[in-house]
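Appendix B. One record, verbatim.
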Amino acid sequence: MLALGIDPGTAICGYGVVEMKGSTLKPVFYGSILTGKDWCPEERLLKIHQDVSDIISHFKPDFMSVEKLYFNRNVNTAIPVAQARGVVLLAAAEKKLPVLEFTPMQIKKSVTGTGAAEKNQIIFMVQRLLGIREKIEPDDTADALAAAICGLNQARVLQLQATGGARIGEILEKQRNPLSKR
């Protein structure tokens, strides 16, 4: 099973493609989409959309795992992040890629065992779980890999619960749209 994890942002949008075979996790491709401070918003969003679309087309993941927005006090940050998240979801929809969404707390708990984990704990556990020796930078990349791991853990549970050997895409589609006949 192959997952694409995304940590949305307009300046830095982390991504990570992770494969799960049995209980073994393997990093396939990861990094961050960077946009310049001097770029206008539509250029930043276009770059994110194009790069995420290219990653989906190239790796053909089974699903995307993306961090849900949480509202903090800084509206100036929340709105651009919501816009980046929107173009990421659009890229998934265009490729008919199922999407799993998780809160930051759910992702932290899935990777570290606690929803109150600090950034350094998340980075440490992502490196351990994926066998990555070098420090993952920027943090957004580690967050995206953590989202992919969280999604794979959840997808595995859903797959184990399903009957008839359904593929994860079918399971996720039925969860999202109970009227779906796929």
